From TrEMBL, chain A:
UniProt family annotation: Belongs to the BioY family.
Predominant subcellular localization, coarse grouping: membrane
Organism: Psychrobacillus psychrotolerans
InterPro entries: BioY
Membrane topology: Multi-pass membrane protein
Pfam families per UniProt: BioY
GO molecular function term, any single one: biotin transmembrane transporter activity
Residues passing through the membrane, by range: 7-25, 31-50, 86-103, 115-136, 148-169
PANTHER family membership: BIOTIN TRANSPORTER BIOY (PTHR34295), BIOTIN TRANSPORTER BIOY-RELATED (PTHR34295:SF4)
Keyword annotations: Cell membrane, Membrane, Transmembrane, Transmembrane helix, Transport
UniProt-annotated location(s): Cell membrane
Protein name: Biotin transporter
One Gene Ontology cellular component annotation held by this UniProt entry: plasma membrane
Keyword Membrane attributed: yes
From TrEMBL, chain B:
Superkingdom of the source species: Bacteria
GO cellular component, one term: plasma membrane
Subunit structure, as described in the record: Forms a stable energy-coupling factor (ECF) transporter complex composed of 2 membrane-embedded substrate-binding proteins (S component), 2 ATP-binding proteins (A component) and 2 transmembrane proteins (T component).
A Pfam family this chain is assigned to: CbiQ
Stretches that traverse the bilayer: 26-56, 62-88, 109-132, 242-263
Protein name per Swiss-Prot or TrEMBL: Energy-coupling factor transporter transmembrane protein EcfT
HAMAP family found in the cross-reference section: EcfT
Purpose: Transmembrane (T) component of an energy-coupling factor (ECF) ABC-transporter complex. Unlike classic ABC transporters this ECF transporter provides the energy necessary to transport a number of different substrates.
A Gene Ontology molecular function term of the record: transmembrane transporter activity
Membrane topology: Multi-pass membrane protein
Native species: Psychrobacillus psychrotolerans
InterPro entries attached to this UniProt entry: ABC/ECF_trnsptr_transmembrane, EcfT
């Protein structure tokens, strides 16, 4: 089923809306509850693939920047994007691109999706930390302690979950002929 | 959940700042972010604070909304303050208690960075509090128009933003419905071991994505049969108007930058 440009754009827009909603969902787990933002990005990129996934992420960042409270914890506005944690949000973009490229090169299986999501996590953390270091004038050690260390364990769990959900949902959508076999 | 999201962060009003052109406000904030980095001592950070205070007064926004906007970052501001306090090791020691050593430079840097963040967050919040997301989207589209030369799909991005903004409430409603529907069928996300809980989430995600694909198809068809063919030659329903006050507002930023450069170390 080949569909035109308008359909692709609308789908990416709705993908961004889905990220916005899932970013607010918390999965109640014992010990660490899992919040949705990075999970939602990984999930949508895994399902929609390179082109549409990346477009969705761009639109998500932009609607957050213009003031819709779509970032985690109902925050939003340019203040969040330029604030101390803005690097993570900007980092979603390169992270989505790399995830998309990886999934396009290899097939969308659970193990490949996990690798892709882990790459995505590393890139997001990297951008977040570099930004935190620059905007807050921190030393690298301090930025690492504040920007990476607390998120590694939860990040890995999220990456695995996003990959698993993404592949399961994608498989079903493929049987319904809603997504194409290639990303 | 819906109430928190449906209106965005826009607070209607009729202040000087509300009446400014969205493009002017966007440019103002963009350049202000750079100007903030000029400040590097007590006087310049003081000037920034006064400037920000004047803008708050001009926008006539109740302090409550601004504090609300600061909430998500307050923790981070305190956190970076503490990081500076403990990790910057320059200047004379001002506190030496057991293993904690606090240096003068650390305290000073901590305060400066906190001011920088507060000022940035307040100014950018004022932009989104006084401008509707739709006018910011329009303004972005116009300002980014020159980038079309480099194949950036500016019109399409703005279109996608508008569609996305419009669909968030709809999809949120839908998510709610799907959750209730699955609960009525006996699905349970709050008990069981990790695997059971994760499995209970899949039946929520699949209908959500299926309905998203269906809606995208319907909307795209509706747009195309009404003759939508991209941004080429398209006219606008909402018009932005640039006035003298917009130019003057941008000029105050130049004045601020000059003053800051004069007083910085």
């Amino acid at each position: 089923m080949k569909k035109g440009g308008t359909y692709q754009y609308v789908l990416a827009a709705i993908g961004a809306a889905i990220i916005s909603i899932l970013a607010q969902v918390t999965i109640p787990l014992p010990l660490v509850p899992i919040t949705g933002q990075t999970l939602a990005i990984g999930l949508v990129v895994t399902i929609l693939g390179m082109r549409l996934g990346v477009l969705s992420v761009i639109v998500y960042i932009l609607i957050g920047a213009v003031g819709m409270p779509v970032f985690s914890g109902f925050s939003g506005g340019l203040g969040i994007v330029v604030g101390p944690t803005g690097g993570y949000i900007i980092g979603f973009l390169p992270s989505a691109i790399l995830m998309g490229l990886y999934l396009r090169k290899f097939s969308v299986t659970i193990s490949h999706a996990i690798v892709a999501n882990l790459i995505g996590m590393v890139v997001t953390l990297l951008f977040g930390t570099v930004w935190l270091k620059i905007i807050a004038d921190l030393t690298w050690t301090a930025a690492f302690m504040g920007g990476v260390a607390p998120f590694i364990l939860v990040g890995v769990i999220k990456a695995v979950l996003a990959a698993w959900f993404g592949v399961v949902v994608r498989r079903r959508l493929k049987t319904a002929h809603l997504v194409e076999a290639t990303v | 959940m819906l109430e928190k999201m449906i209106f965005g962060r826009y607070i209607p009003g009729d202040s000087f700042i509300h009446r400014l052109d969205a493009r002017a406000k966007l440019l103002f904030v963009f350049f202000f972010i750079m100007v903030v980095f000029i400040a590097n001592n007590w006087i310049t950070y003081g000037i920034l604070l006064v400037f920000t205070f004047l803008i708050i007064k001009l926008s006539k926004i109740r302090l409550y909304f601004l504090i609300n906007g600061l909430k998500p970052v307050v923790f981070l501001i305190i956190f970076t303050f503490l990081l500076h306090l403990f990790f910057t090791r320059e200047g004379p020691i001002i506190l030496d208690w057991k293993f904690i050593k606090i240096y003068e430079e650390g305290l000073k840097q901590g305060i400066f960075i906190s001011i920088r963040f507060t000022v940035l967050v307040i100014l950018t919040s004022i932009l989104t509090l006084t401008t509707t997301p739709i006018s910011i989207t329009d303004a972005l589209e116009i300002l980014l128009n020159p980038l079309k030369k480099w194949k950036l799909p500016v019109h399409e991005l703005a279109l996608m933003m508008s569609i996305s903004l419009r669909f968030i409430p709809t999809l949120m409603d839908e998510t709610d419905k799907i959750m209730k529907a699955q609960m009525a069928r006996g699905s349970d996300m709050t008990t069981g071991n990790m695997k059971e809980r994760m499995n209970a989430i899949v039946p929520l995600l699949i209908p959500l994505f299926v309905s998203a694909f269906k809606r995208a198809e319907d909307l795209a068809t509706a747009m195309e049969v009404r003759g939508y063919r991209g941004g080429e030659g398209r006219t606008r329903y909402r018009k932005l108007e640039w006035a003298l006050r917009d130019t003057l507002t941008l000029l105050t930023l130049v004045v601020l930058a000059v003053i800051l450069v004069y007083f910085r170390n």
